[in-house]
Amino acid sequence: MKMDIPWATLELLPASPYSVNGISSCPSLGLAFARQTGVHAIDSDVRQDFDAWPGDLALAAAGLPVFSESSHGGEYLLMHATKPDLQPDLHTSLPRQIFHGDKQAVTLAWQLRYLLHQTNCDPLLLEEKAGLFLQRGLKLASLASQHSATASDYAADRTLHGRILDYIEDNLDTQIHLEELASLAGMPLLRFLRSFSHATGSTPHAYITERRLQKARRLLKNSNASIADIAADCGFAHQSHLGSHFKSMLGASPRQYRKSALIQAKN
Questions:
Q1: Nearest C-alpha neighbor of 108 from the set 129, 93, 124, 87
Q2: 2-146 has which CATH code?
Q3: pLDDT digit string (tens) for 99-117?
Q4: Where exactly are the structural domains of the chain?
Q5: Distance CA 189, CA 180 (A)
Q6: Which CATH class is domain 206-266?
Q7: Which residues pair with 81 in a beta bridge?
């Protein structure tokens, strides 16, 4: 799914296997909606394993050689700044910077995804949200040098919450309670809430709902299961519960989404 605005190109990359190898002519800003692992080489010939988390925001300079490959991929919002006037503003001290779990960036990315799914998207609103998304990335870049967290703090945080993400992924079809997640993390409830939001840019409830919706979208596109069965398989209380979240996050009903996916598959 791809859309041009006067100064940038927006692209919603699907959760599917991919392999890319090339050099971008434009600066880019991208945000991961889901966790994905694979192999990459950024501005280097050395390929390394990577583990991109939901909420990771990447700002990359133009002319950066990039190889990236994943056997499963993950939904990803990518913006290329195509207008030359903007490109000096996107010049940073590092060719590529990653920012983790910024709530404003995640919220703006969700809003952009919603607009990209609309057949009659308001172009002014899309451009405005894209501008705010870009502005947030630049703001994070300007604050990066002031960040006090150490690499060891970051690694420990990821190790801890990685277990939580794995648990959530394994239990999407069941009821998940906040207290059990906090217990698994070995934290008091309020501390866990702060820590999880800092790591992913969203609350546990918002993250779980997002992962359930992503699973439902995959089943709607790739199976003939009924919407009621898909709702149950994804941990929604009932079909209308799934429908309300679809409308809120994507602006379409599950039935409309499935129909649109079938049309796109045929084209």
A1: 129
A2: 2.60.120.280
A3: 988 999 999 999 999 999 9
A4: 2-146, 151-201, 206-266
A5: 9
A6: mainly alpha
A7: 8
